[in-house]
Amino acid sequence: MAKTVVIVGALDTKGEEFTFLKGRIEAAKVNAFVVDVGVMGRPGFEPDIKREEIARAGGSDLAHLASGEHKDDAMQTMAAGLAVVVRDLYDEGKLDGIIGMGGTGSTSVVTTAMRTLPVGVPKVMVSTVGGGNVSPYAGSKDITFMPSVVDVAGINRISRTIFANAAGAITGMVSAGQPRAVEERPLVTASMFGNTTTAVNHAQGIVEGRGYEVLVFHATGTGGRTMESLIADGYIAGSMDITTTELADTVCGGLFDAGPDRCLAASRAGIPAVVVPGCVDMANFGSIETVPERYRNRNLYRWNPDITLLRTNVEENIRIGEMLAAAVNEAVAPVTILLPLKGVSMLDSEGGPFWDPGADGACFDAIRSNLRPDIPVIELEDNINDPTFSGRVAQTLLAMLGA
Known about the structure:
By secondary structure, the chain is an alpha/beta fold. The protein is built from 14 helices and 14 strands. Helix 1 packs across helix 7. The chain is elongated and about 70 Å long.
């Protein structure tokens, strides 16, 4: 049975370009299903889903949007409507992959819809910003960005090659299909940083030895959001959230801020979780000269030429502890907090550059005083990277999963 690629674009301004793309996809023996998100002029050809349907799904009517007086509203409405329509197509089995082309406006609209699709569904975006910072457009999903090199404005010597390559990419993805593992093991997530690598590797080995597959995520903001996206999508059986350092970046305005919802996904999804205030002793900034002036006289550590770590203080740790407790309090499945009383990172060990029992204690006290009384707290006289601690993390999660 032939696969189907959904093509999304503004057919009023880019009809020629999407005609070419559609032809290349169909030449590869893949069905092309076209969705029009243009709002102004007439479409260059008849789509399978018209713009009027997209506007209605977004809660508006095309006449209002087409006046040209509400461009911001038009973009938001078409993005919202497209997200609904694209997800419906996927749920109905009518979408095996999706591709879009355009500038910043089209990129925003199309990727909003792409982000509603599960990880693994092929997604290709040919964009004028494809070679720049695409993280706001990608979110936590696996969108493949292809720089358009020239503007998506006509078929010429350069664009013809780019568009043909894009068609080849999406048809190749959907035709290749998804490989299946020989044995489908339940998935467990773990969050890791360079300062908790020893702990996570040890816990991972124990959990995988009991028949689970552990997905490890680097706690860099994007990593935390991606981990929580997979949890929210229902892929994950349990979580070892050992490295919650992104909360420190939220509090201090660091580079690796994962947003205010960090640590909430497991609670809301109802999966067993072990949560540790790992690496909350550090907030991350760029090279030393990029550290905000208000932190220049604080305890700073040059992790590498591009990353400078700020040692969090008592006040910041109180806030981090409150945030962590608030997230865990929403849990509807078994959850346990483990506290490493001899340091929350490699640097935060006795004699280390970030060793500060007072700051750590402030975080621990905030967790204890704000936590639901029915949630267990296990305190160990270990550093987070000691095998007795990481082993306890693994065994605690395994016990909850077994129960």
